[in-house]
Amino acid sequence: MNVQRTSPTKERVGRLFWKFFVLITVFQVGADLLVHAWPIEKQRIVMFFHKPAASVIVAADCSKSQQPPASAPSSSKPEIEDIMGGIIASLASAALLAWLLSKPIRSLHSAIADAANGNLDVHIADRMGPGNDELKDLGVEFDRMISRLRTLIVAQRQLLKDVSHEMRSPMARIQAAIGLAHQQPDQAQALMERIERESVRIDKLIGELLALSRLQADVDNQLNEEIDLRELLSDIVDDARFEGNANGRFIHVESEIDGVVLGNVALLRRAVENVVRNAIKYSHPGGTVEVGTMRRSGGRVAVIWVRDSGTGVPESDLANIFDPFFRSSMHARKEGSGLGLAIAKRVIESHGGSVVASNAPGGGLRVDIEVPLLPGEAGTSRT
Asked: How many domains are contained in the chain?
């Protein structure tokens, strides 16, 4: 047997409507009664306190012995009609006001129910009515929240898809190597080296995923260290030169500035190092990676820029190179997880800065990292 139940939305809206209706009616009817009754009561009170006591007694005796004037009943009838008319008008206005107040709330509740059921394509601001009041602002904020949730869910699904793809390839190679090792025992040593390389690749991928996840969740993100910019960049360049020279790439420092950044030295070092190592990887053999620093915004912001000597990135891909697992179509076969720049972007943003990429004139990709300096850090630049 099917049992029909009242919709929770309709039930709540009905209760809310009647609460508004009763509350407004009580106030309006009470005001109407007070307006009509107060002049009569006021006149009686004034007459009572201004007449002599004897005349009050005589008036009282006369009222008992004499009949009331014939006009008295006719004068009270209009008063009753006025009161009834005011009550009817109060009921009508109360119903209208209650409906106007409950309608946007009903629309908002319906949108929230849709979102709770998985429909994230709802828009409520346009249904909250014209004007610019608190309820309309609530609808606008609700739409913004839903849009943000929709973006995060899409990004989460894409991330899960990319992780599955990135993990599947090395796992397939490991399984293939294990199968070949059983079939060709004489090649076991070479196959074991292959398995080891793929295991290291998987371990590195998992480590970067954990790092990105912790950054997105702001876990252990204490930004209270004073970081000397020149010292930080010097250490990164020394390590990059060691790695680059081994691969036939060179590092050249264009300019340096003095300055102090407030943040996490390990995270900031990792972010800048990821950008520099990315430039080394995509530079041509024998090419040079240029690194420099400068100031912007009246000296309040430090800029660390890195330029490689590669082929650059298509303009359509520039906005996406900081997304997790994104690889430009020009460099799809390059090794790597595609998480280095995504981690760098998240770290820089957590330090109150920004990172942008552009194709440099003459070729190569240039990445600009902006971080705010501590107030009072005048600093000097050297070329």
From this structure: 3
**Which residue from 176, 202, 198 is spatially nearest to 187, judged by alpha carbons?**
176
CA–CA separation, 30 and 38 (whole Å): 12
Distance, in Å, from the CA atom of 122 to the CA atom of 46, rounded to the nearest integer, reads 64
Are residues 30 and 72 both part of a single domain?
yes
Which has more pLDDT, 226 or 222?
226
**Residue in the block written with tokens 């970067």:** 208
The predicted pLDDT at position 62 comes to 47
Instruction: Clarify whether residues 320 and 209 are in a common domain.
Output: no
Does the pLDDT value for residue 73 go beyond 50?
Answer: no
Radius of gyration for the alpha carbons in the chain, expressed in angstroms and rounded: 39
The HSE-up count of residue 368 (CA atoms within 13 Å, CB side) is 13
Encoded tokens for 197: 């390389």
> Backbone dihedral region of 23: left (phi > 0), alpha (psi from -120 to 50 degrees) or beta?
alpha
- Non-local (6+) Cβ contacts of 313 within 8 A are 321, 328, 330, 357, 359, 365
In a domain, 146, yes or no: no
> Please, are residues 217 and 254 in contact by the beta-carbon 8 Å criterion?
no
- Are residue 254 and residue 364 in the same domain, yes or no? yes
pTM reported for the whole predicted model: 0.56
Query: Is 194 in the same domain as 335?
Result: no
Angle at 40 between CA 34 and CA 66, to 5 degrees: 145
Q: Could you tell me the residue range of the domain that residue 169 belongs to? A: 154-216
Band of the pLDDT at 3, cuts 50, 70, 90?
very low
Judge if 377 and 330 occupy the same domain: yes
Q: What percent of the chain stands above pLDDT 70?
A: 68
Residues designated catalytic: 165
Cα–Cα distance measured from residue 145 to residue 356, given in angstroms and rounded to the nearest whole number: 26
